[in-house]
Amino acid sequence: MDSIFDGLGPGEPLRGPGDPGEAHTDPLGSIGFDPVFETVAAIRPGPPADDLDDHLWMHEEGRIWDLGPAEVDTDDDGVNDSLTRNGPDGFTVYTDSDRDGQVDKITEIGSDGEFSSAVLDPETGRWIPGDSGRIG
Question: Any idea where the DUF6802 domain is (predicted)?
Answer without folding.
Answer: 48-136
